[in-house]
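Aim 2, interim progress. The first record below pairs a target sequence with its structure tokens.
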Amino acid sequence: MPVKYPPPTQITLKKHHKIFIGSFTTIVIIYMIVTAILLNGVIVKQTINNNEVNNKIGQLQLDTQTKLNDLTESIMRQNEQLASLGSQVGSIDEQFSSLKASVGSDFSGIIENVIPSVVTVRTNVGQGTGFIIDNEGYVVTNAHVLSGGSVIYIITYEQETKNAEFIGYDSTLDIALLKISGNYERIRLDDSNEVQVGEKVIAIGNPLGLQFSVTEGIVSGVHREGANGLEAYIQTDAALNPGNSGGPLINKEGRVIGINNFKIGGGESLGFALESNYIREAVNKISMESLNQTLV
């Protein structure tokens, strides 16, 4: 026969048990609410603090960048002042040399600066003079100095003998362009349109094989006509002799105003130099044709 189980016992909570459980539940709920509020407050406060920190960091970065900009501008101003000071010092040196040149006919300060840029041009049949117009060793001389020669040598102021590369020439203006290896101090061309009759000049060359000889004179005339029919020559009473051809005619600023070209035989102190503006024209024409660039 089947087993009979007793009916399930029903647990009946007394009133004070219900109150206790209800109170405990309420307390838990209240605790959770308070905890959530507190956590939310902490999170909000932390967010505010983070924003403040970020703002301070941003402000600090801005201040730092501003100070860096100010410092950079200050350094740039100081560099400009130093450059200006250096330029003033250089200008004072140039004025001093110019003053020496204009007082007592003393070109010694200028000669010291320009003569290292003057060279001897020698071939197997003769010699003349030239001068360096570019730091990379480009040399200008008269084309007739090279006439009949099969090899070309350059002797520098330091007495170094260099093989010269022939770049090209202008037969009308009697200008030739050469190249030697190495780096050198160049001599600058001045504007020959500014040359005045009566101003003092010096001619540097190798007359009769006497290297780096200097003669002094004045400009006797400008825009004189040469054998080529061009009114392109400066007349000077500075002594010119064989070997001076291709050498520079220098003004009191230490710049080239002409290239010593020829003298009239049978007359005294009648030397002629091709004006520097024509030198520039010829050199740039040759260099554009041969090198695809201008040099002066």
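The second target in this work package is listed in the same format:
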Amino acid sequence: MKRVLAVLVALALVAAASSTLQAQSLQSTLENLSMDAAKAYVDPIVSAIGSNANGGWFHRAPMGKILGLDLEVGVVFMATTFKDENKRFDYTGQFQFSYDEAYRLAQESFPAANAFAWNQLALRLSSQSFNLRVYGPTIVGAKDEYLTIDFPQTTYNNVIIPGDSYVIPGQQYTPRDPSGAAINGLLEGLKALPLFAPQASIGTLFGTQATFRYLPEAKLNDKIGKAKYFGFGIQHNPEVWLGSLLPIDIAVAFYTQNLKVGDLPLFEAKTTAYGINASKRLGWGFLNLTPYAGFMLEKSTLTFKYKFNTAFAGQPYTQDITFDLEGSNKSRIVVGASIKILFINVNADYNIGKYNSFTLGAMLIL
């Protein structure tokens, strides 16, 4: 986690970390583009965390009855898989130079020119948009590939000498993290990101079942600080009001949770999911098979806060960096089945979305 946070900071401050004069003159524009590149770089992990957290909440719809006692306690395991397309990114963003940035760039590119020529070129540079390409491995990409920034070559006609032109050379460079290392795929070979959560459900009251995930607040260590986790959700079967109109149980559902680790540095994950699911119990109360399926809309947001100590232009400074990253999964289709034998229920399902995942649950039914 510390290494990942360091990479995020390095991307946000890539202009300050670069030693080239051109990169220094592009500082403000590069910082904005680097933030987008940083999001693309860590998207597989951010999306996998959100995908895992929003999975495993249900393995059947509650029955449409007014009152019943159904208590489950157990654990859910989730794993989100990574595809080849998740291992690289290629981002192109547009920006404009400020006049001061353009003037410095004109001076650096053509030191033999005069103030009039620098001014004319700066006016041209600051009046149009440029593309800047950032590409390379994501955090789960290859370790022998490195994040790269490309600034394209640009040619301008000389406003003083007809037929003459200015050629601003293209530039390619590799940003580095605070340790000085080029940024590559830190987690090469990671096929899937696992996660687990303790879970308990209680029902049924007017066709409604409540589900909880909880870990008591605990101190991890002096550097990271405390961690706490809580999640809550409900399923409601509208057949309790409408009567048994269908041969299956259906439910509308909503789930939300929050995981917070540390204060500064801080890692916080917030997720929500809502949708509809259906199930059909086959067998008896003490021995049954229950196929289930569902469609969920979802959202996951991860916040990183980090205090960064560095130096720029010979002056030390401290900066608080904050990232708000959103997972790529917006919806999922869930298909699975559960088996109950006496007081034990085991379920497994496959979740289909932009990032696919598996879940496995084991519950003691009291």
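Residues 2-87+183-365 form one domain. This observation will shape the mutagenesis plan for the next reporting period.
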